[in-house]
Amino acid sequence: MSLFSTEQYSTEQYADAQQHRLLATFEHEDDLLAAVKQVRQQGYKIIDVFTPYAIHGLDGAMGLKPSRLTWVCFVAGMIGAGGMLWFEYWVGALAWAIDVGGKPWNSLPSNVPVAFEAAVLLAGFGSVFALFAVARLFPGKQAHMPSDRVTDDHFVIVLDQEETQFDTKQVESMLSPFNLVELEERVVSAGEYQ
Asked: Could you tell me which CATH class the domain 19-67+148-189 is placed in?
């Protein structure tokens, strides 16, 4: 599957599908981090984790792979730098060759600053557009927040309840030592909390 593939995110074919989710709410990031580690250790599937701010180490605790966004940034930057070097060479040596101060027409040192700026520009735009594409962010998209307080002072783990051996009481007893605030079962439409 490619970086920009949308076939796994298509919700049109699952418009009527209902999915069962278990939302565990915590008040402190340390409790959330320990709970995420415990949930993964027990083999439960974590759909997502909602936090009001970034938590160091959460991606590792969730078992997420390193982001490929850095490669997109690098490739876009190299395309920008290479394209600008080629363009400057074409303009200065081939299409509009002008002798300025006796300098050679294909002077690389004079072309490097502009090529660097083009690399930064394309790397920035490439990263932003790749992030928007992968995160499925687009104008007018409605946010599906599990709780209004998740953007303020609560932390929420969303677990998949679709497995037949899923036991809510067992999950509650497992998460209770981590100062569990609330445990809520929800039936959501396909595409929410993914």
From this structure: alpha beta
